[in-house]
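Weekly puzzle thread! Below is a chain. First person to post its structure in token form gets bragging rights.
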Amino acid sequence: MATANAIVAQSGGPTAVINQSLVGVVETLRNDDRFGKVFGARHGVAGMVADDLVDLSSISQNQLDLVAATPSAALGSSRDKPDKAYCERIFEKLRDRDIRYFFYIGGNDSADTCRIVNEVSDESGYELRCFHVPKTIDNDLEKNDHTPGYASAARYVGLAFMGDNLDNRALPGVKINVVMGRHAGFLTAASALMRRDSEDGPHLIYVPEATFDLERFTRDVQEIYSSLGRCQIAVSEGIHDADGQAIGAKLISGEADDHGNVQLSGSGALGDLLAEHLKKNLTAPAGQKLRVRADTLGYPQRCYPDASSVDQEEARAVGRFAAETAMRGDLDGSIAIQRAAGDSYKANITVVRLTDVAGHTRHLPEEFIVDGRNISTAFANWLRPLAGDLPAIGRL
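Winning reply:
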């Protein structure tokens, strides 16, 4: 193609490293004289249809580097889930500005948006290269070993549980921490990252991939509490009963979002329910007062400003790879991070079909789940290379 314009946007929940991917795309495109302007759309696809764009072509590299190292979505984000009619409006706006390259940074719904816009452009005979750049703290994208944003959120969860475990050792009791993760348990499983011996918490970990039974939960906690005199528990916000009904959704009233989901994050209802249930049903060891507390880790999981160095590098790399792939002549695809075989950690970045990612959900592998109530050491070994440098723990 002759000199053409490009557009990049961000979607879904912000992360600690999503701006690395944004900058990776921008710096790669604007260093090639085949491109005219590189636009950024404010608030994702909503900015495209509203012509709320910013010209990123002339921003200094120093400013881009500063943006890259800053958490959250610098362009703003969107929860819109476009249908074909919405995508036709997007396409019309892109065509009006002679935009031939479309990069959308987000999760599986963002991949689906790329897929639909790509189909609309094909039907119109207009060459538009559409690329999905992966992002999600849930780590639930198919064809990926892990996704940008996940390792930093997992680092936060692992370190938060480490500190909370040390607190729980000093003042024993039962402590419940609710972690993000509606359908996939990768982030909740990260609570096991800093365990060093059998007495370290979390002692129990419940993920959406395993059915949650309240009576069994009570027995599990009583067993640990009777043995250690304390119990730290990690619970995914998406735990569900045998009928597939999310426990949290039963407790929270409110409207569903455009994806049909009842808001689970940001509410302490699930933790409060479980804590109150345990207060009524646990027996404290002789001479010990029953202490049960619950916290919901909430939104700081997404953008806490202590990103994994590995996550930062890989997020920048997938943005660059997306731009390079489009420049080589590929017409569409989703960028994926895959782990190379071998004892030492190495990531391979590749491109897969949009239809392999769009609308699909990856789940925590069954082999990482222990008896429906814990996470294996193998998972922590899988996660550790992604989390960056971790602190040592001193004990007396």
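Puzzle host: Confirmed. Bonus trivia for everyone else. Residues 30 and 58 are 9 Å apart (CA to CA).
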